[in-house]
Write a structure and sequence with these properties.
The protein is an alpha/beta fold. It has two domains: 243 residues, Aldolase class I (TIM Barrel), CATH 3.20.20; 71 residues, Non-ribosomal Peptide Synthetase Peptidyl Carrier Protein, Chain A (Orthogonal Bundle). Helix content is 49%, strand content 11%. The protein is built from 15 helices and nine strands. Helix 4 links the parallel strand 4 and strand 5. The longest helix is centred in the C-terminal third of the chain and has 19 residues. It is globular, with a radius of gyration of 20 Å.
């Protein structure tokens, strides 16, 4: 068994998200209580071609452990070879196989959720990687199926279990749904009841109440938090406090949020070396952080233009002054 599931532990995973879960963000989420981290997905071809950008995506620090590297591809031999290379380069705690990505540029190469339509190939891919990297454990992430008419998550999960996959994360939507609609937690629960290996539930885990309810009402062994972590990385810590004490902790203050945002910006700059490049790349992240803040629409207009940490700091100071003015009875502009 994976050690983070031992003694009835129910870990909270940070979901792998392209362009989001870089090392800086992973470390911040770890500080905020995430138990298990996974890199952005990396293509087998990028690894085999020794692509420099791919190597950067594989990098992680010791404090991130346990951490897995997520791979995608559709050729069993090439994916197995790529997994061995990853094992030797960075020694991850596990390899994760992406059988769930709905993005067309991945699916058109027969990767990600495309394999949900070809279970024999999915089985060959999983078997090849498990054998190639043992004793390093291999996990997988799937969706419910390709479409509402072809839901096959229980079949897929059974196949993966038979190949030696150590745990399965299930996103409660089909490929055709993308990220629309509502995650089907009844279907996730059915997968958890079908296999003996740990099932990690994923989808619509946006607040502490949902996290507590899903763990208490299904047999999932852990949860994977994705888009909600982009807005509220402290969700992990708050959820753990609730699960341990039954008390609903307060949301961080606006001041605490801004301290986190500025720290994220400074860490990104230190990692990238180029301030303008790092902050420009952070704009989408800043948009996510502004969600739910007072005057979020105005904030987003300002934040989408920043290219320096000082500009973000100035927006922070102005926003805090405006929020303080509203609390004192003044207007918010």
């Amino acid at each position: 068994m994976l050690p983070w599931f031992e003694n009835n532990k129910r870990p909270l995973y940070l979901a792998p998200m392209a362009g989001v879960t870089d090392s800086v963000f992973r470390r911040l989420c770890k500080e905020h209580g995430a138990d298990v981290l996974v890199t952005e997905f990396v293509s087998a071809d990028g690894i085999l071609h020794r692509n420099e950008g791919t190597k950067e995506m594989l990098a992680f620090r010791e404090e991130e452990r346990p951490v897995g590297v997520q791979l995608f591809g559709a050729d069993p031999e090439r994916l197995a070879e790529a997994a061995k290379s990853v094992r030797d380069w960075v020694q991850p705690d596990f390899i994760d196989l992406n059988f769930g990505c709905p993005v067309n540029k991945v699916v058109c190469k027969h990767g990600g959720s495309a394999l949900l339509k070809d279970c024999p190939l999915l089985e060959r891919v999983a078997s090849a990687v498990v054998k190639a990297v043992e004793p390093v454990p291999v996990t997988a992430k799937i969706r419910l199926g390709w479409s509402a008419e072809t839901i096959n998550a229980r079949t897929t999960a059974n196949l993966l279990q038979q190949t030696g996959i150590a745990a399965i994360a299930v996103h409660g939507r089909t490929k055709e749904q993308g990220y629309s609609g509502v995650a089907d937690w009844e279907a996730i629960a059915q997968v958890a009841e079908t296999v003996s290996i740990p099932v990690i539930g994923n989808g619509d885990l946006g607040d502490v109440d949902q996290i507590g309810f899903r763990l208490q009402s299904t047999k999932v062994r852990g949860l994977m938090i994705g888009r909600a972590a982009m807005t509220s990385p402290w969700l992990f810590q708050r959820a753990k406090h609730f699960l341990q004490t039954g008390e609903l902790p307060a949301e961080p203050s606006i001041e605490e949020r801004w301290r986190h945002i500025l720290r994220h910006c400074r860490m990104a700059v230190a990692e990238a070396g180029s301030e303008r490049h790092a902050i420009a790349a952070m704009r989408g992240r800043l948009m996510a952080y502004s969600k739910g803040m007072p005057g979020a629409c105005t904030l987003r207009i300002d934040l989408q233009k920043v290219s320096l940490v000082a500009q973000v700091a100035a927006i922070s100071e102005r926003h805090l002054e405006q929020v303080a003015g509203v609390c004192a009875g003044g207007p918010y502009y």
